Amino acid sequence: MNPRISMITLGVRDFERSIRFYEQGLGLPRMDSPPEVAFFPLNGSWLGLFGRESLAEDAGVASDGSGFAGIALAHNVDSEAAVDEVIAQAVSAGARLVKPPGKVAWGGYSAYFADPDGYLWEIAHNPFFWVGPKDENA
Fold first, then answer.
1. What is the CA radius of gyration of the chain?
2. Which of 50, 74, 87, 122 is deepest in the core (most CB within 10 A)?
3. How far apart are CA 132 and CA 138, in angstroms?
4. DSSP state of 134
5. Per-residue pLDDT reduced to its tens digit, 41-99
6. Rounded distance, CA 92 to CA 83, Å?
C-alpha cells in the first residue's frame, strides 16, 4: 500500500448548510461535481460532503451514530496568529468553538471547532515541524 489519504468524506445531515459552511464560510474552493456530493481540493487530497444517510447506506452501516466518533481532522498553520484567525473565521461561519486557542502540553498552540455536523477540527501551530505547503492561505 502506498500510504496516503486521497479523500476525506463527511456524512452530513444538512447538505446545503454544510456546503455553505465550507465554501462560503471557510472559503474552500468547490470542484464541479454531481448534485448529491460536493468536493473541495485540499492540496493533494479532497474533502467530500455526502448526505449522512446516503454515506451510511453506501458503507452498509446504520446512520444513527452519536457522540464522539473517535476522529478529529487537523489543519496545521504557520503561526499562533493564524490559529486565531482560522478559528475566528470558522466561528463566524457557524462553527461551534470547542476549545479556545491556547498553548498546549506538546509545546504548540491549538484550538478546536466543530462544524455544523459536529465533526471536530483542530487548528494547530507546531513550532517543531511543518507539514504541507506554506502559503498565505495556510
1. 15
2. 87
3. 9
4. -
5. 998 889 999 998 888 886 777 787 666 676 789 898 999 999 999 999 999 999 999 99
6. 14
For position 130, what pLDDT does the model report?
62
What 3-state class would DSSP assign to 20? Answer: helix
Please give the grid coordinates belonging to residue 58. Answer: 453506501
Dihedral of alpha carbons 41, 108, 95, 71, sign: positive
> Which residue type does 122 have?
E
Architecture per CATH, domain 72-125, reads as Roll (3.10)
CATH of domain 7-59: 3.10.180.10
Q: What is the domain partition of the chain in residue ranges?
A: 7-59, 72-125
Per the CB < 8 A criterion, the answer to whether 8 and 22 are in contact is no
> What's this model's pTM, rounded to 2 decimal places?
0.79
Closest CA to 76 of 22, 115, 121: 121
The confidence score (pLDDT) of residue 115 equals: 94
More confident residue, 107 or 69: 107
Using alpha carbons, list the distances in angstroms from residue 133 to 14, 31, 55, 75, 129: 32, 20, 31, 12, 12
Place of cell 452530513: 12
Cβ(82)–Cβ(125) under 8 Å? Answer: yes
